[in-house]
From TrEMBL:
<feature type="domain" description="PEP-utilising enzyme mobile">
    <location>
        <begin position="834"/>
        <end position="905"/>
    </location>
</feature>
<dbReference type="InterPro" id="IPR013815">
    <property type="entry name" value="ATP_grasp_subdomain_1"/>
</dbReference>
<dbReference type="InterPro" id="IPR002192">
    <property type="entry name" value="PPDK_AMP/ATP-bd"/>
</dbReference>
<dbReference type="InterPro" id="IPR051549">
    <property type="entry name" value="PEP_Utilizing_Enz"/>
</dbReference>
<feature type="region of interest" description="Disordered">
    <location>
        <begin position="1"/>
        <end position="25"/>
    </location>
</feature>
<dbReference type="InterPro" id="IPR036637">
    <property type="entry name" value="Phosphohistidine_dom_sf"/>
</dbReference>
<dbReference type="Pfam" id="PF01326">
    <property type="entry name" value="PPDK_N"/>
</dbReference>
<dbReference type="InterPro" id="IPR008279">
    <property type="entry name" value="PEP-util_enz_mobile_dom"/>
</dbReference>
<protein>
    <submittedName>
        <fullName>PEP-utilizing enzyme</fullName>
    </submittedName>
</protein>
<feature type="domain" description="Pyruvate phosphate dikinase AMP/ATP-binding">
    <location>
        <begin position="47"/>
        <end position="330"/>
    </location>
</feature>
<dbReference type="Pfam" id="PF00391">
    <property type="entry name" value="PEP-utilizers"/>
</dbReference>
<feature type="region of interest" description="Disordered">
    <location>
        <begin position="911"/>
        <end position="933"/>
    </location>
</feature>
<feature type="compositionally biased region" description="Low complexity">
    <location>
        <begin position="915"/>
        <end position="933"/>
    </location>
</feature>
Length: 933
């Protein structure tokens, strides 16, 4: 599928230029070929381009191709001659030629030939697609290099779309792709536009897995352009090419789709709620699609990449091309199954404990190639110094601290606990390892393959070093926190005042170097608060269990630590304040409630009342919270200041629900706490010890949250520079679209800015495509475990039983609630759907989700731990929560009535959404949630 999609058009006569003599009207008509008529290519083989030729062949073979005609390369040549552009082409600047075509009216005889063919089709809505001579060949695909204009209707708009396709022969990206070779002529296909219900791609051989007899299908709701751009979720199927049976199936929750928003405008919209969690295709449809794929492969005698769509139950084929890359040979067992990036001795390889629990939450979840390479930079340049900030004297080898497995980042717990044994609180490695282990792993007989840290003089030196460092830390922790807060505001304001677009390449390199230095310092400054809060929580848990017995079970989660003022929780209150300001101004509220999300910020600034609201309320809010975002180390994710859509969604939600600030404050500070009564039973010395530990936990937690904003702001600064580089690469044609920034390597960005190499050579197209394919492969795979020892075969993971009605996880926040479930996968798109009191069910959360907790009845996540974001914030808002259920998002449906028991760690579906006699959630008479103590 072409990745460049235009949803606006320009009048065909815009600009005047020489029309040239009309020489041969009859000859022009002969250069317009109805596809499928007169054989695979009629008398014009070689003039239809790759796409046109393939469609003609599919049509002639009786395969279901929508009606289409092709403007041959001969017609394009005639256009160039008659407008005088051909005489200018030799040695001309490509951009000048493109502008000439877009500004020159199509000669009348050529336009008549095009419109006669369009009239013969009945003048339907059409897709106008470029068809290059080398396009879709076995050597080069040219996919996305030339333009496509979708959903066009009317004579003038069709002519304009044809000109745009012709002009794209000299687009920056096409020029770069052919490496400045002379351009070939370009054909154009005009095909009836099918507004598909479901679209996708099918590969007659798995492009990333060498196993035979696998037809791979990816399917999404709506038009296929959303799948190609990576903006929508898709289902994944594997069909046996001999029996045509479905042998593998992964159905994802689908929130958005690409579809017509209005005539002539294609964009993103929501998938109907009833279609989100069901497969895009039935097994019967997959068998039918598989049979079509086998026919096409037999027709060409080679493996094919096929684009298809379904409308009203009928399949349509839009394109087929040879698969230009074959699956790589299987990697060595250790490389495929271990997070280590370098070979290791067998005992280390098979005995290492890996975990992705609580690693700052900024690494949680699948990461893009750019995100992974940035994490690798962090590992090599920052992480060991973070260990030093904890008082570790010997910080070890950077490559051993972290690992990477199927697109996820893991912490090497074995090596980390080995090094942390230099510090007194973690001299016993179990104090550290037990905090990073989920219930999948039993550490009863575990032995660290790295052994214990050397004793004797090394231990003595390390202990002295740790004591001196800790003494300094205790005296400086508050002042350093304030310095980090002040520095964050300075750096934020400075960044807002910069215009990166006006910087030279060398200046941009200097800016990135500066930002990375600050990134380094902020992570080192943050790490002690994070680890010390972790340590005091663990100590509190251990002392409660030891001194209070059964009375102390879960006490650490009930203790009132006065952390309702944490920066993360405070952001929910501040969103409420912004919502109140909007509610009090009808003009502002109308814009926020009624306008498309992507237009709200612009429309507010264009409106006098909106501008006042922006200056008085949005700007202070964004200055305080704007660098928050989802999965912050994944620098492809925009922050609130880059895209405030989520904030507008929450404003809509808070206004609609009528929440008062008292509602939020009660949830974050009004909990009835029995911990003081329990602690009162202890002897005074033990009670004083626990009070001290509670105070230190509260202090470190507060400082952690305060300085976290500095840490994540440092990531945002780096992101700004990377995306400015990406913008320039798109403008120069090195990248097809901004979506491809996600497939870059961070080291290539640094190398490009640091030198004077040509961008085409630094950002190699083959490596970008390989990174994209690997990322798509990782997206198909089951979620890997939070922790495992040695190696893990992810292909052995099995899909949970569909009829499971009871789930077990970690009891993260006490209380019991009965309510309707709401699956949330895309925070921005779904925040306005969430009803107050519903149970939030999602994969995991981070700081950007906090405002939703203020109105949630309960929280259930697939992954998480006692100190993950979802657990901490749920406790602060006193929302019952169960985390680490593994597969709640697959076994619970939106609208299910569920019981969340935050004391027992269980979630039970008591009534399925499709059997609810009172209708869907929100229907009259259906309670949003009911809580029991």
């Amino acid at each position: 599928m072409d990745t460049h999609v235009s949803d606006t058009t320009t009048p065909a006569g815009a600009g005047e230029g020489p029309a040239g003599p009309v020489t041969d009207p009859a000859g022009h008509a002969a250069c317009v070929v109805t596809l499928g008529a007169g054989g695979p290519a009629g008398g014009h083989r070689g003039e239809l381009g790759g796409k046109g030729t393939r469609l003609a062949e599919l049509s002639a073979a009786g395969l279901p191709v929508p009606p289409a005609f092709c403007l041959t390369t001969a017609l394009f040549d005639a256009y160039l001659r008659e407008t005088g552009i051909a005489a200018e082409a030799a040695g001309a600047d490509p951009r000048t030629l493109r502008e000439r075509i877009l500004g020159t009216r199509m000669p009348a005889a050529i336009a008549d030939a095009v419109l006669d063919a369009y009239g013969s089709m009945g003048r339907p809505r059409v897709a106008v697609r470029s068809s290059g001579l080398r396009e879709d060949s076995a050597a080069q695909s040219f996919a996305g290099q030339h333009d496509t204009v979708l959903d066009v209707c009317g004579d003038e708009d069709v002519l304009d779309a044809v000109l745009r396709c012709w002009a794209s022969l000299w687009s920056d990206r096409a020029t770069v792709y052919r490496d400045r070779d002379a351009p070939d002529a370009l054909a154009v296909v005009v095909q009836e536009m099918i507004h598909t219900d479901v679209s996708g791609v099918m590969f007659t051989v798995d492009p990333v897995n060498p196993r035979p007899h696998r037809l791979v299908v990816e399917a999404c709701q709506g038009l296929g352009e959303g799948l190609v751009s990576g903006q929508v979720s898709s289902d994944f199927f594997v069909v046996d090419d001999e029996k045509l049976e479905v042998v593998e199936e992964r159905v994802r929750y689908k929130v958005t789709k690409c579809a017509p928003l209005e005539p002539g405008r294609i964009g993103m919209t929501k998938v109907d709620a009833a279609a989100r969690s069901v497969p895009c295709l039935t097994h019967d449809q997959l068998r039918e699609l598989g049979a079509l794929a086998v026919r096409i492969r037999d027709l060409y005698g080679s493996e094919q990449d096929i684009e298809w769509g379904v409308r009203d139950g009928v399949f349509h084929l839009f394109q087929t091309r040879p698969i230009t890359t074959r699956p790589a040979a299987p990697a060595a067992p250790s490389g495929a199954l271990s997070p280590y990036v370098a070979p290791q001795p067998e005992p280390v390889l098979n005995g290492t404990l890996w975990s992705r629990m609580d690693i700052g939450e900024i690494f949680v979840g699948l990461m893009t190639p750019l995100g992974l390479s940035f994490a690798r930079y962090y590992q090599r340049n920052v992480h060991t110094d973070c260990a030093g900030a904890l008082g570790v004297r010997d910080t070890g080898e950077a490559d051993l601290h972290m690992g990477f497995y199927q697109g996820h980042v893991y912490l090497n717990i074995s090596y980390s606990s080995y090094l942390l044994a230099q510090c007194l609180p973690t001299r016993d490695q179990r104090h550290f390892t037990s905090r990073f282990v989920s219930e999948e792993v039993d550490l009863a007989d575990y032995e660290n393959p790295f052994g214990t840290f050397p004793g004797g003089m090394e231990d003595l030196l390390s202990t002295v070093h740790w004591l001196q460092h800790t003494a300094r830390e205790m005296t400086q922790m508050k002042s350093r926190s304030q310095q980090m807060v002040d520095a964050r505001l300075y750096e934020f304001d400075r960044a807002r005042g910069l215009d990166l677009t006006r910087m030279s390449r060398r200046e941009l390199h200097g800016e990135l170097h500066r930002d990375l230095a600050w990134f380094h310092d902020m992570h080192i400054g943050y790490m002690p608060y994070y680890i010390n809060a972790f340590a005091f929580y663990g100590l509190l848990t251990e002392l409660c269990a030891r001194w209070l017995g059964s009375d102390g079970v879960g006490l650490q989660n009930r203790v009132k630590t006065d952390m309702s003022s944490l920066r993360t929780v405070e952001s929910a209150k501040e969103v409420w304040s912004v919502a109140q300001a909007a509610k009090n101004d009808p003009a502002v509220l109308r814009i926020i409630k009624d306008e498309p999300l992507e237009d709200i910020a612009r429309l507010l600034r264009e409106d006098p009342a909106g501008q006042r609201f922006w200056d008085r309320h949005m700007e202070p809010f964004l200055r305080a919270n704007g660098t928050r975002g989802h999965q912050e180390m994944e620098i492809t994710h925009p922050r609130w200041i880059d895209d405030p859509s989520y904030i507008f969604q929450m404003i809509r939600r808070y206004v609609a629900d009528g929440f008062s600030i008292d509602d939020i404050l009660r949830r974050s500070s009004g909990w009835s706490d029995d911990s003081r009564e329990v602690l009162g039973r202890l002897p005074m010395p033990k009670r004083q010890v626990l009070d001290t530990v509670i105070s230190l936990y509260a202090l470190c937690s507060e400082l952690r949250e305060t300085t976290r904003m500095s840490m994540i702001t440092s990531i945002w600064l780096v992101r700004n520079v990377v995306y400015e580089v990406g913008r320039r690469l798109v403008a120069d044609g090195v990248l097809h679209s901004p979506d491809e920034i996600a497939h870059l390597d961070f080291e290539d960005v640094r190398r490009y800015l640091a030198g004077d190499e040509d961008a085409v050579r630094v950002f190699d197209r083959a490596r970008i495509d390989a990174a994209r394919r690997l990322h798509e492969h990782n997206k198909r795979l089951p979620e890997p475990p939070l922790t495992f020892v040695g190696v893990h075969d992810i292909t052995a993971s099995v899909r949970p039983a569909a009829d499971g009605a009871r789930l077990e996880g970690l009891a993260a926040s006490p209380g019991r609630i009965v309510g309707r479930a709401r699956i949330v996968e895309d925070l921005v798109w779904q925040a306005d759907e969430f009803e107050a009191g519903e149970i939030l069910v999602t994969g995991y959360t981070d700081a950007s989700w906090t405002p939703l907790f203020a109105i949630a009845g309960g929280v259930v996540t697939d992954i998480g731990s006692m100190l993950s974001h979802s657990s901490i914030v749920a406790r602060e808002f006193h929302v019952p929560s169960v985390v680490n259920t593994k597969d709640a998002t697959q076994r619970i449906n939106t609208g299910d009535l569920i019981v969340v028991d935050g004391d027992a760690g269980t979630v039970e579906v008591v009534e399925s959404a499709d059997t609810d006699p009172q209708g869907p959630p929100g229907a009259a008479g259906t309670p949003a949630g009911a809580t029991t103590d």
